[in-house]
Design a protein that fits this description.
Elements (H helix, E strand, L loop, with lengths): L2 H80 L9 H9 L8 E8 L4 E4 L14 H8 L6 E2 L3 E3 L5 E11 L5 E10 L1 H8 L8 E6 L4 E5 L15 H9 L1 E7 L6 E8 L5 E8 H4 L1 H47 L9 H18 L3 E8 L2 H8 L1 H18 L6 E6 L2 E7 L3 H16 L13 E8 L7 H17 L5 E3 H4 L1
Helix pairs in contact: 1-7, 9-10, 10-11
Length: 499
């Protein structure tokens, strides 16, 4: 193969590799950048939802705190007034006003009640004349009677008989004497509709909800109303609720034990109250816009990468076709069109290459030169068409006798042929020459009227030394061929026999 063609082929291979490498790097870079941007946008969507939800949690927590503070202040005022020694000396309307003055300022008021140590109703904010009733069964009364805690007690939700069955919660404080003796309880009922109305004004995602929970795991209220009855059960053993208690305030993503959906929970305890505000958003809603964008970006990226791969494939195919065409051109330029063997140009190139290799390695190089005996007479007798067929048959026979890919058979010119044998000594070259000669001799004539073909061969082997010339190897093979013809043809003469 000529140096120019080799250079072109190497250049094409290098170009193809660079093209594939550049495309691979480009696709990796595109995928990396898109992935980075999508991850960043995902995090941005999550942070935006967290900020919005925590703002809602803070707003609701502040409102709940203020509401509870109003009720607690009214309860403290009720207790303080009830302890006044001159309270029974005033008129009943004035006494009622003094006891429940601050109660009028509380929202969703379901009634304030003053109970004595036996649970008897002493005063009722709804009427100046209190009915003779006993509420010692109320959980708030039982809690304060059995505990010395001075803290505000917030009850579980209950259907209030005093408010026609409306769901309420109660706030209560213990009334103690100077010696700590239990004197009774001040109780206030609040309608839970107040919180529901508050929550309804908040803008949540379609599958989001806001919930107020007691720290003992009791759900107080939720918006929207839960569809499952499990949402009303105590949450004290729920892993998500346990995390609320551990972290006090924050955000995290977890699977809901109620509906099994993945949710973003945002929560905070309400001051020092035993209450937790929770805003829960379905990640399906939080990341819905991101998912749409991710799908569009993914499709665009896929199309872009597909276009790059298609373009690379097309260019690679063109380079491959170009390489194949150049190899075909090279083959045409170095192949004898009649016999299919290498031509004189290819022979000269191979001899030069093998000669330099033999000089570097010190290994022997052999050359066989031969021609078809009396071929001019054969052409004159049978015609050039049969002569061409004879050349083809001899060429095929030579190829069948050669078994190493490194060896080269070539048409030297006219009816002359040559075989270049690298790393082959004189004995090996002589044996191959005899094999070719015998195979040619055994060829059946083209027709019964044709004579058999024979060949005369000259073999030359050289252990290349510094200063040796390639022309010497060629001349010695040519001289051996001349002697073979002189010796009667159809024989093999080695140049070693002439020295």
């Amino acid at each position: 193969m000529s140096m120019a063609i080799k250079h072109i082929l190497r250049s094409n291979v290098l170009t193809l590799r660079l093209l594939i490498g550049a495309t691979s790097v480009s696709i990796i870079a595109i995928l990396s950048i898109v992935s980075f941007l999508l991850v960043r946008e995902h995090r941005t969507a999550e942070l935006a939802a967290i900020r919005t939800s925590l703002n809602i949690v803070q707003l609701v927590g502040r409102d709940v705190q203020n509401t509870v503070n109003l009720y607690d202040s009214a309860l403290n005022a009720l207790i303080d007034v009830s302890k006044r020694s001159d309270l029974n000396s005033v008129s009943l309307p004035l006494k009622h006003m003094l006891l429940f003055d601050k109660a009028e300022q509380t929202p969703a008021n379901g009634g304030f009640y003053l109970l004595n140590a036996q649970g008897d109703l002493v005063a009722d904010s709804r009427t100046e004349v209190s009915p003779k009733e006993n509420f010692s069964h109320w959980p708030s009364f039982v809690e304060h009677r059995d505990s010395n805690s001075p803290n505000l007690f917030i009850s579980h939700p209950f259907d209030s008989a005093e408010n026609d069955g409306i769901c309420c919660i109660s706030f209560s404080r213990r009334i103690s004497g100077p010696d700590g003796r239990f004197l009774g309880v001040a109780v206030a009922q609040m309608k839970l509709d107040y919180f529901k109305n508050l929550f309804q004004r908040l803008d949540l995602e379609p599958h989001g909800f806001i919930r107020l929970i007691s720290t003992d795991g009791t759900p107080l209220t939720q918006h929207p109303e839960p569809a499952s009855a499990d949402a009303h059960t105590n949450l004290s053993n729920n892993p998500v609720f346990v995390r609320f208690l551990q972290e006090h305030r924050g955000s995290f993503i977890a699977l809901s034990s109620i509906d099994g959906d993945e949710r973003l929970y945002n929560f905070s305890e309400v001051g020092d109250l035993p209450l937790i505000v929770v805003v829960s958003l379905a990640t399906e809603d939080v990341f819905s816009a991101w998912r749409r964008n991710a799908i569009l970006v993914g499709i665009g990226t896929l199309l872009l990468c597909s276009a790059l791969l298609t373009l690379t494939w097309l260019l690679g195919r063109e380079l491959h076709l170009r390489q194949r065409a150049e190899r075909q051109l090279e083959a045409l330029a170095t192949t004898d069109p009649l016999t299919g063997l290498a031509n004189r140009r290819k022979l000269d190139q191979t001899l030069e290459q093998e000669w330099r290799r033999a000089q570097r390695s010190g290994k022997p190089l052999s050359l066989i030169m031969f021609d078809i005996d009396h071929f001019k007479n054969f052409n004159d007798t049978y015609g050039h068409q049969d002569g061409d067929e004879a050349l083809k048959r001899v060429a095929r026979t030579i190829q069948q006798c050669m078994h190493r890919s490194t060896d080269l058979a070539a048409r030297y010119g006219g009816e002359e042929f040559a075989v270049v044998l690298s790393d082959t000594d004189a004995s090996g070259a002589y044996n191959l020459a005899q094999s070719i000669r015998q195979a040619v001799e055994q060829l059946e004539p083209l027709t019964p009227s044709h004579r058999r073909l024979t060949t005369s061969m000259g073999v030359s082997t050289c252990q290349v030394k510094p200063g040796d010339q390639l022309a010497g190897l060629i001349n010695s093979a040519d001289q051996a061929l001349y002697q073979a013809k002189k010796a009667g043809r159809n024989c093999v003469i080695s140049a070693a026999e002439l020295s």
